[in-house]
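Task: sequence in, structure out. Protein: Cysteine hydrolase.
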Amino acid sequence: MTAPNAAPRRALIVVDVQNDYDGGGLPIVHPPFAESIAAIGRAMDAATAAGIPVVVIRQNAPETAPIFARGSHGGTLHPVVANRPRDHLIDKALPSAFTGTDLESWLRARAIETITVVGYMTHNCDLSTVIHALHMGFAVEVLSDATGSLAYANRAGRATAEEIHRVCLVVMQARFAAVLPTDEWIAGLASGELPPRDTIFGSARAGAAL
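Result:
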């Protein structure tokens, strides 16, 4: 990694850290919830200490929905996030934190260049937000241990939580984001070093050599 001339103007985007992911309707499996929620807390604390704005995103569903129902315990922010300082709170109804919200305008008004994404789930709202951000011209970072997935099975097939989480991170690193552990990101805030980024071409060549 190489040190830049000036640190990018970052914001930490904390996506959907709600109680339904903590043993509720959509329990996170990999990494274990206890590990990822601790990493999210560390990232929020480090961002606050470094003067990086923290934006908390909350998924809202109708009161009759099986998950994230408005006013339900499952739809409430997890205490690790709810009890920490934040600069902005956004409610959303679709996977991307940008769709139907003021997130883009809030970031532009503060000249934010890079967003760092944590929260849930790696393969759904995180991935949607990351891709959306890239298309808008933001640089993106994803903290790999401050996110998480669960297993899926449907008519298209099945995949374990580990497979979904790992593959999504590999895909994001190849084009959409710099993927790194939380502690490395925190160290970079102090040193000014930026995380390495890969390309589709480089990732494909390395994959072909396996």
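The radius of gyration is 17 Å.
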